[in-house]
Design a protein that fits this description.
The complex is a heterodimer of chains A (474) and B (293). Chain A has 474 residues and is an alpha/beta fold. Helix content of chain A is 47%, strand content 10%. Chain A has 2 domains: 215 residues, D-Maltodextrin-Binding Protein, domain 2; 185 residues, D-Maltodextrin-Binding Protein, domain 2 (3-Layer(aba) Sandwich). In chain A, strands 1, 2, 3, 4, 5, 6 and 7 form a 7-stranded mixed β-sheet that branches. In chain A, helix 10 crosses helix 11. In chain B, 31% of the residues are buried. The radius of gyration of chain B is 24 Å and the shape is globular. Chain B has 12 helices and 2 strands, in the order αββααααααααααα. Chain B has a two-stranded antiparallel sheet with strand order 1-2.
């Protein structure tokens, strides 16, 4: 809350600064649409909250166009947006497009071509706004000809967070060395990660602390666990593109895929074996609960989405571990880092999303103004601080962002310098259907109903059937 | 006469029109879509007619769908048994006078006014591992570990308990209304003839309550068979398939995988199964009622 108030004050300040610059243009451009109400739907994340509570109000004050942003749960957001676009009902003027669903939306021609829309309406082109200011993350929202269909509003990497206070405790260091024969340190290999997890689970229990060795995003009834495996754990073991052969759309090893291959099975074995060292809520944890668990000091280390990294490290009202958060790249299997650096692989998920305009929107022109408003360089720094996200190249150099970066153990710097090692989701138009086919097998592996090997054999067969049913296997 | 009928039809026509639009049109559309192979994520996203029985033939061999039906029936039978037993007991208790009766009746009815999705949230907050009080106290006092994210049986029974908590008040109130309206003459005659309370309950109360019981059983059976919201909130259908009831399964097929044709066929088949179950139950209860007469 405190951070939101600071951001609000800061945004009012930047708004007043901007008022000296392009305010007149915004007023003039917004005048024909004054009184219009733009409806949007997005996932309820820190960046989404900032857009709805701060940017929308500033935009309304400037243009007279009201923005009602419905920030809701991830599932509900998709449900509402897709049903609206399928039915062509025009309820929403803009929707959140997560990076992994964009290929589905483009394939189904749900979205307005923003580049084309602006080119055809020169009067709507805001001064000082350029799509060239964005980082390369915007490329995920372009079609083959380079036209933009979504304006990025968040982008972040999934990092390895650890508790500095625990890792630097003298008694922990001594006990770890005595037990494992080497020094206690944040993990750079999976063996070290597992040892750390086991050690801190016992260390916390012995010292009467409510903490465990690692987070596990292992909900057994929510896609978050499948995403954790396919987009974070798997890639760090060298399992790319869900193990799908991108030429033949086969995922089983016997057909040329990798989903039930050695790397995938090693990854799932490693991950499920972490459960005894995770907080008891792990099997009901999505990304939100993982962030909350880490912020509550209930885990010594873990893979955590970057949208949560900044507030966990800096917001004392919500986080019990402020000042004690270390940020690093997650551990990787031998060779994976080299493959990622050369562009032949990736170490984890470059997450994020954009606001796009459905074809069914009844207020396309006014929405284009709103999307350009959130694309301005001027609003990016406060947004980055509130939401741990960066979409513009210049944001990294902003003094306010640099100050938070220092508090957050260099999270923003890490994203800037190593972002190229990460990748978005593979370009599958059948993304949702494919993932839903895999879900039950991951749930069963986590619940111990199936071995990881059997689960992946089942998962690849189910995924292959979906790709075959949908006609992707020729 | 004709004039009266004409006025009646005129007055009914808005309702009939609304029922036609919101009831019959979607039903026939779902029936129609169920004959097509249709997924907008496919290479060919158009609706393809593959024969009237195509999706239905696939369904017969779909183990996940069939197991979800069995799971739903099992759930409906178990919850119905407990809700009826508990509801009857509470209704009988509320017939007599005891201190704070009105207060108890008010509190007992509260779950009825809570939306299913909120009931799911309440139970989640109450029972989630690591944060909820239920697992904490069960562990501390009985050494019992409750983790429905891990244990399939626990997940199923948590949903049964949640449904009983939510819907027993409905059964209680309906049965209480029925009990309050029963004529007193048969009871007085039975007492004069020397019948004890148990005999009165078995041979007088239950037979006279059959019409009310049929209504309650139907309403609860149909509701239980189409449960979605609470399960969605509490377990999401997991772990694995443990709580993937047919309603959840259809949702996942249609809105996650986008198999519109297949999902429509599932809906139609499940509707048919529900009607058959209800019809069988109705036939059995009515024929038993007649034979007792």
């Amino acid at each position: 809350m405190k951070k939101l108030v600071i951001a609000l004050v800061a945004s009012i300040f930047s708004f007043s600064v901007m008022a000296d610059g392009h305010a007149e243009w915004w007023k003039k451009a917004g005048a024909p649409y004054a009184g219009t109400v733009l409806q949007g739907v997005a996932e309820n994340t820190p960046p989404g909250q900032f857009a709805g509570e701060v940017l929308a109000k500033d935009f309304e004050a400037l243009t007279g166009i009201k923005v009602q942003l419905e920030n809701t749960s991830w599932d509900s957001m998709y449900d509402k947006a897709i049903k609206d676009m399928e039915a062509n009902s025009g309820i929403y003027d803009f929707v959140y497009i997560e990076q992994d669903i964009v290929y589905d939306y483009l394939n189904r021609d749900f979205l307005v071509n923003i580049s084309e829309g602006l080119a055809n309406n020169p009067d709507l082109q805001a001064p000082g706004v350029s799509l060239d200011d964005f980082t390369t993350f915007i490329d995920y929202f372009k079609d083959g000809s380079g036209d933009v269909f979504g304006v990025p509003m968040e982008a972040f990497i999934k990092v390895y967070l650890y508790r500095k206070d625990l890792f630097e405790a003298a008694d922990a260091k001594a006990a770890f060395r005595a037990q494992y024969g080497y020094g206690l340190a944040p993990a750079t290999s999976f063996e070290q990660y597992r040892d750390n997890a086991e050690f801190f689970t016992h260390y916390c229990a012995d010292n009467g602390m409510e903490c465990w060795g690692t987070t596990v995003q292992g909900h057994t009834g929510h896609p978050a666990s499948t995403y954790e495996f396919l987009e974070s754990i798997g890639p760090s073991f060298g399992l790319y593109n869900w193990g799908v052969n991108m030429d033949s759309y086969q995922s089983c090893v016997e057909n040329g895929g990798q989903l039930n291959g050695g790397r995938a099975k090693a990854a799932l074995n490693f991950w499920t074996q972490l459960l005894p060292f995770a907080p008891p809520e792990a099997l009901q944890s999505t990304w939100s609960e993982v962030g909350a668990s880490f912020a509550a000091g209930r885990a010594a280390q873990g893979w955590v989405y970057g949208e949560n990294a900044a507030w966990i490290a800096t917001d004392a009202e919500k986080s019990a571990v402020v000042g004690n958060v270390g940020v690093m790249l997650p551990p990787t299997a031998p060779g994976v880092m080299t493959q990622a650096a050369s562009g032949n692989g990736y170490i984890g998920y470059f997450d994020g999303g954009a606001y796009g305009i459905p074809h069914s929107s009844k207020n396309k022109e006014a929405t284009m103004l709103w999307l350009q408003y959130v694309a301005q360089n001027e609003v990016q720094a406060d947004w980055a601080i509130a939401g741990g996200r960066i979409t513009h190249k210049s944001t990294y150099a902003d003094p306010k962002v640099m100050a938070v970066d220092e508090q957050a153990d260099g999270y923003f710097t890490l994203m800037r310098d190593t972002g190229f090692l990460y990748a978005g989701a593979p370009p599958f138009p059948f993304h949702g259907a494919g993932r839903a086919a895999i879900d039950p097998f991951i749930y069963k592996a986590l619940a111990g109903e199936m071995t990881p090997e059997a689960a992946l054999d089942g998962a690849c067969a189910a995924l292959d059937k979906v790709m075959s049913d949908l006609g992707y296997q020729g | 006469m004709f004039s009266n009928n004409k006025t009646g039809w005129l007055l009914l026509s808005p309702t009939i029109l609304i029922l036609f639009l919101v009831g019959l049109v979607p039903f026939f559309y779902v029936l129609y879509v169920g004959f097509f192979k249709w997924n907008p994520l496919a290479v060919d996203p158009s609706m393809q007619f593959e024969g009237f029985g195509y999706n239905y033939r696939e369904l017969i061999f779909d183990e996940v769908f069939l197991s979800s039906i069995w799971r739903s029936i099992r759930f409906a039978v178990v919850t119905l048994f407990f809700e009826l037993s508990l509801g009857f007991l509470l209704a009988l208790s509320l017939l007599s006078s005891f201190p704070l009766k009105s207060f108890f009746r008010g509190v007992h009815t509260l779950p009825l006014v809570i939306a299913p999705i909120v009931v799911g949230s309440i139970f989640k907050l109450f029972s989630v591992q690591g944060l909820g009080p239920l697992p904490h106290f069960l562990k501390d006092f009985f050494g019992y570990t409750l983790n429905y994210g891990l244990n399939a049986d626990q997940a199923f029974w948590m949903i049964v308990i949640m449904d009983i908590w939510h819907w027993t008040p409905f059964v209680t109130l309906t049965l209480l209304a029925g009990l309050s309206a029963l004529p007193q003459d048969p009871y007085e005659s039975a007492k004069i003839d020397g019948a004890n309370n148990f005999q009165i309950f078995i041979y007088i109360t239950i037979p006279m309550m059959v019409p009310v019981l049929i209504v309650v059983i139907f309403i609860r059976l149909m509701d239980s068979l189409k449960i979605v919201d609470e399960v969605w909130m509490l377990t999401g259908g997991g772990p694995g398939y443990a709580t993937r009831f047919t309603g959840i399964h259809i949702w996942k097929e249609v809105f996650e995988k986008r198999f519109y044709g297949f999902g429509s066929a599932m809906s139609i088949l499940y509707l048919y199964i529900t009607i058959v179950i209800c019809w069988l139950l109705y036939s059995v209860m009515v024929s038993r009622g007649k034979s007792e007469d």
